[in-house]
Design brief:
The chain is of the alpha/beta class and 505 residues long. The protein is built from eleven helices and 25 strands. The strands form six sheets. An eight-stranded parallel beta barrel has the order 3-4-7-8-9-10-11-12, surrounded by six helices.
């Protein structure tokens, strides 16, 4: 028997959270599994261009309109010598990648990745190795990438065929340096000191760059909060963002609890903001530090398969989660969480982009296709540009194993004043029926519903595969309508919804 729930939302133009930084819709590509080799890069593939980049993958990436892509890691970067990936390919070494127990052929490096991001209509967010390396390698990489000419490393870049500097503006000071799995893991003090000294000299080379310092690897780390506070105490005056990472899964097949996990994400963001502001107060600083949520996603399907992969091979299939409908709903809610704190979260990176826990999958030598999670990410990137509005929401709620008072409705509004468009992103967490949704939009006089996009399926475990790439796809079957400033819609059960409104011509 279907059980319909109810929810209301009020949106006003003047009740604003913040302008949304486009970089909130960034992504991540790591030298991991088939992310690069067999993913974005496959010489000999029917769609490959002159550099070996897959044209079919580039087309799908362009659909997502991604402003920034983090590279080259991730755990990989903590053992990476960037010099291995530049210069003539036939002279580049093959290395053991200890992070993922594979062989790295170094056919793709800094220059090739910069070329690829430009083809994808994006920019690079570069990470430096603060695991096995440090200050010297970091400053040299900035010089190689960004200095015009007349110095050793800038002239080396020119020798390698790149006369113009890459102009990379966003840099990560290592990756997850508190994790015992990390090559060169450090205490908060050890990391804070090397991050501080690296930040100083990197900005001496190029004062225009922005820097992201590593927060905890996750909210569940035993040192969480203390790590952030100690690292920021050392680096606050020299960095611009602190990173957050989180992944969610449904290992015990408890979907109501899985769909509620983004409440944890909200608490995580608010906790890190509080820590940043504590250090701001402690230092009597006028500077407000922002957040870079540069790893986030659903990740759990591939854990068992990864244990069986033969080590020390090139580009084995690792972290190849096949995503289903419920995963897409959680990704949608995670995007809503990021938009909801757009006042402080300025950068986000969906981890990752191709094959590795990714919205895009490929077969080596074969097709590429969109996973279920592709669609909410695409919708947010395309229609979530503008100003995040502060919603007032009343919703029926439920309790799950780990959470109480979970709203059936998870929603946010984004107003694009220039285009005179309002977009509402909404997840219906009700698995038993629809959600009667009403919205008070009296401040948007003269607006009409342009379309109501719905992503749903009767089967929560339904997925897209090479054989069935269109099994779970969005449709325009939503019934949202507006009358006298009142929006009404029945959101289908277990669904992601995009309600787009525009001012009448």
């Amino acid at each position: 028997m279907e059980v319909v729930r109810k929810a209301e939302m009020i949106l006003e133009k003047d009740f604003q959270i913040s302008e949304i930084d486009p970089r909130l819709y960034g992504a991540f590509v790591e030298h991991l599994g088939r992310s690069i080799y067999g993913g974005i890069y496959e010489p000999g593939h029917p769609s490959a261009d002159e550099q070996g980049f897959r044209g079919d993958v580039l087309s799908l990436v362009r659909e997502l309109d991604i402003p920034v892509i983090r590279y080259p890691g991730g755990n990989f970067v903590s053992g990476y010598n960037w010099e291995d990936g530049v210069g003539p390919k036939d002279q580049r070494p093959r290395r053991l990648d200890l992070a993922w127990r594979t062989i790295e052929p170094n056919e793709v490096g800094v220059n090739e990745f910069v070329d690829w991001t430009r083809k994808a209509g994006s920019q690079v967010m570069m990470a430096v190795n603060l695991g096995t390396r440090g200050v010297d390698a970091a400053r040299n990489l900035v010089e190689y990438c960004n200095h015009p000419s007349g110095s050793y490393y800038s002239d080396l870049r020119i020798k390698h065929g790149y006369a113009q500097p890459h102009g990379i503006k966003l840099w990560c000071l290592g990756n997850e340096m508190d994790g015992p799995w990390q090559i060169g893991a450090k205490t908060a003090y050890e990391y804070g000191r090397i991050a501080l000294e690296s930040a100083k000299v990197m900005k001496w080379v190029d004062p225009s760059i922005e820097l992201v310092v590593c927060g905890s690897s996750g909210r569940g780390m035993p040192t969480f909060a203390q790590w952030e506070a100690e690292v920021l105490d050392l680096t606050y005056d020299h960095v611009d963002y602190i990173s957050l990472h989180t992944y969610y899964g449904n290992r015990d097949n408890d979907t109501p609890n899985f769909l509620a996990r983004t409440l944890d994400m909200d608490q995580f963001i608010n906790s890190v903001i509080a820590i940043c502001d504590y250090i701001k107060a402690k230092k009597r600083s006028s500077k407000t530090l922002h957040l870079s949520f540069d790893e986030w996603n659903v990740w759990y399907h591939s854990n068992e398969a990864d244990k069986k992969v033969e080590p020390w091979t090139v580009a084995p299939p690792l972290l190849e989660d096949v995503y289903n409908l419920e995963d897409a709903l959680v990704v949608g809610s995670m995007l809503i969480s990021l938009i909801r704190r757009a006042d402080r979260v300025k950068i986000g990176c969906l981890a990752q982009l191709v094959n590795v826990i990714a919205p895009i999958m490929t077969q080596t030598g074969g097709p590429a296709w969109r996973q279920t999670t592709f669609y909410p990410f695409m919708h947010a990137s395309l229609y979530g540009r503008g100003t995040a509005l502060l919603p007032v929401i009343k919703s029926d709620k439920y309790d799950s194993k780990d959470f109480t008072d979970v709203p059936y409705l998870d929603a946010i509004g984004v107003f694009n004043e220039e285009k005179e468009e309002l977009t509402i992103f909404a997840v219906n967490r009700n698995l038993e029926g629809g959600l009667e949704f009403t919205g008070d939009l009296r401040g948007f006089c003269g607006y009409e519903v342009v379309e109501h996009i719905v992503l749903t399926h009767e089967d929560l475990k339904a997925a897209n595969t090479a054989d069935q790439p269109n099994n779970v796809v969005p449709h325009l079957g939503g019934n949202a309508q507006i009358s006298e400033g009142k929006l009404s819609a029945l959101l289908p059960k277990q669904s992601w919804n995009v309600i787009r409104l525009a001012k009448k011509a």
